[in-house]
Design goal:
seven-stranded mixed beta sheet; two-stranded antiparallel sheet; 23 helices; alpha+beta; 11 strands
Length: 444
Amino acid sequence: MKIELPRKVVLIINNLQIHGYEAYAVGGCVRDSILNRKPEDWDITTSAKPEEIKRLFKRTVDTGIEHGTVTVLIGKDGFEVTTYRVDGQYEDGRHPKEVTFTNQLEEDLKRRDFTINAMAYNNDVRLVDVFGGMRDLNYHLIRCVGDPEERFSEDALRILRAVRFSAQLAFPIEPVTANAVRKLAPNLEKISAERIQVELVKLLVSDHPEMIQDACELGITKVILPEWDAMTGVKQNTPHHKYDVAGHTLHALQNVKNDKVLRLTMLFHDMGKPMMKTTDENGRDHFKGHALVSEQIARGVMKRLKFDNETIKKVTKLVCYHDYRIEATPSNVRRAMNRIGVDLFPYYLAVRMADTKAQSGYQRRAKIENIVAMREHYQNALKNRECVTLKGLAVTGRDLMDLGMVPGKQLGEMLNELLERVIDDPNFNKKELLCNYVKERLVL
C-alpha cells in the first residue's frame, strides 16, 4: 500500500533515518489516508530519544517531553514526534504513572487505543499493521488493541472515543469492545470536563450525531450527560410530534449542518420538556415554558463541561428562541433580528427548520413556508440596510443631549423608543424626523 506523505513529514522521517533511527507516520493520519480522508495532523513515532530528536532539528518545542513528545517546527507547521514508549501502570484512569522508552515499534503500537489507530507507515517499509487495523477498516469495526478492559482501564476517555470514532467513521463498535464500554462507562467520572467536552463536540459535529443514542445505550451519557437520559422515553402525545423527546432530538441533530453551535443547540433545545410536561383532560401533552427551562439546562451543562463563554452565550440564546414563532412580516422579522441578534439570526432560522423537519407532518408545509418567508425578510433587511439595533439609529445619545436631555435612564428609554419606531417603519430613520419626534415628546 502506498500513502502520499506530505513533503515536510518525509523530511522529518528521512532526517531521523539518515542518522540511524527508525521513524514512521503513525495513528490517525495513517488511518485517514487509507480512508481517503484528509488528516488533521501528522504524528510521527521514532526510536530516537527526545534529546536526540532535539539535536537533529533546529526548531523544536518540548510539548510533552516527559512522555517522549517533541514538536518539530518546519516553516509555520508543527509536527509531534514521539519516542517509542511503553506506558507504565495507570493509577488514575487517565495517565500512566511513568513511561519507558523502547526501540521496538510493536511495543509502542501495542499501547494505543484502537486497531485502526495502531498502524504506522513510511516510504521504505510501507504499512506496519501488527494488530489488524486494515482488517477492521475493511470490516468497518471499532476494536480495541488487545484486551478492551485493559485499554479502557488505562484511560477511561477511550470509552467515549470509541463512540466518537463510531460516529465519525460510521463504524459499529465490535461486540467485545462494546461490552467493555458498557462495563467500564462509570470510570468516565475520573475524566476532566475539558476532555469530555472535546470528545462530545467531535461526536456531535460528525456525520452521525445521532450516535449519541449509542452512548446512551452503552451507559456513557448516564455519567457525562444524564440530561440526555431524562429525555429518553418521554412521549409527546401532540399532533405536532411523532417521536419521543429523545427521538425528536436525534432527528433534529441530523437535520442541521455540522456546525458546533447549531449541533449543541439542537442537542439542548428540548431538554426542558421532561420537567415541563403536562397532560390535559383529552390526553394531549403540553410543554409550555420548556424553552426557558431548556436554556437553563443548556447553560448548566455547558458550564459543567467548561465551554467558553462565547459558545455558551450563542447556544443558550438560540435554545431560548428555538420555538419563537411569529407571523412573517417585515417589522416582525426586524424585531426578531433585534432580539436574537443580526449575526445569530441565520442560526435561529436553521434551528427552526431543523426542529420543524423533526416533527410530524402536521402543518409542516405552513411552518416551512413561514421560515422561508422570514429568511426573505431578513435578507431584504440586510440588503436595504434597515436599522434593527441602536447602533443603526440615525441619532446618538449625544444628539439627544444636544436637544436638552440629560444622561441617564430617560435618555436610554428614549433611544429604545426611537428604535421601536424605526423597526416598525425604516423610513423614519432620518435624523431630522427622529429629532423632531424627541422635541415633541419633551414638550409633552
